[in-house]
Design brief:
- Its EC number is 2.1.1.197.
- With 270 residues, this protein is of the alpha/beta class.
- It has a domain of 182 residues: Rossmann fold.
- The protein is 35% helix and 23% strand.
- The chain contains ten helices and seven strands.
- A seven-stranded mixed beta sheet has the order 3-2-1-4-5-7-6, sandwiched between helices.
- β4, α6 and β5 form a beta-alpha-beta unit.
- α1 runs parallel beside α5 and α7 crosses α10.
- It is elongated.
- The relative contact order is 0.18.
């Protein structure tokens, strides 16, 4: 039986310890370059069911706590829990508040009791989870009947301009791999949660040059974390070839970087 929780290539997602370490290192610089993250999280907030009033919510993969604070302001009478696998992110988020508790944990094995939350919010975190079926199973376990899981993630087609440019430059893997949208659909359909909405929308950012994009990815902690990525420094000749290849994508606004964003709202049946 095909394991739909993984991308087509075995071992295509990075080790979660590398993910945690990378995002911990990026905690101080993350918010300064998180335009996409703020836009996507805002879109996800707007997709929450009207009138939702959870007694307890979980921000799963809270990062610097930007949306924990937004949830806290939006739901002042609720009890908030912010969770992340990266201790560095939690250390950054905790003093800024927004949630009652900040805890280290893995979305594939949540350290929470059965039926303990009414809302799980997760923006641009679950793409780093190798076993998304486990994420959905844990959400089903932790949610109260009638509770909602709202997540935003990334799918195949993300950073395709950068991927194609590196392929032309040296043929090596420099860009993180992501699941297909169909895989998200199949896993959500099989999760036991009712799919209220599931859609894919492109989000395009523009940059004056390639270095601005790669600097931002590093500041976000979202640079290349693939197993089998090339080691050592990237040589000048390869960088020059990358720049030349990427220039073919230039638009009037600058060099485009396209993110294929998955938005989903799922509900646990009563």
């Amino acid at each position: 039986m095909t394991d739909l929780s993984l991308p087509p290539l075995p071992g295509a997602l990075p080790d979660k310890r590398q993910v945690a370490a990378s995002f911990s290192r990026a905690a101080a610089s993350y918010d300064s370059v998180a335009e996409l993250q703020r836009a996507v999280g805002g879109e996800l907030l707007a997709r929450l069911p009207a009138g939702i009033a959870p007694a307890r919510w979980l921000d799963m993969g809270c990062g610097t706590g930007y949306f924990s604070r937004a949830l806290g302001e939006r739901l002042p009478d609720s009890h908030g829990v912010a969770l992340d696998i990266a201790e560095g992110m939690l250390n950054h988020a905790r003093p800024l508040g927004g949630a009652a508790h900040f805890i280290a944990g893995d979305a594939e094995r949540l350290p929470l009791k059965n039926e303990s939350c009414d809302l799980i919010f997760s923006s641009l975190a679950v793409q780093w989870c190798a076993h998304f079926d486990a994420v959905l199973s844990e959400a089903h376990r932790v949610l109260q009947p009638g509770g909602v899981l709202a997540f935003a993630s990334l799918c195949v087609g993300t950073l395709e301009e950068l991927r194609e440019s590196w392929r032309a430059a040296d043929g090596l893997v420099h860009v993180n791999r992501f699941r297909t949208f169909d895989t998200y659909r199949q896993l959500c359909d099989a999760s036991g949660l009712r799919v209220r909405c599931l859609e894919r929308q492109p989000h395009v950012l523009h940059y004056p040059d390639v270095r601005s994009l790669t600097h931002e990815l590093k500041a976000l902690g979202a640079h290349n974390l693939n197993p089998g990525r090339p080691g050592g420094l990237t040589g000048r000749a390869r960088v020059a070839a990358l720049i030349q290849a990427y220039e073919q994508f230039r638009q009037a606004q600058g060099l485009p970087a396209t993110y294929q964003v998955v938005y989903a709202v799922l509900e646990k049946p009563l």
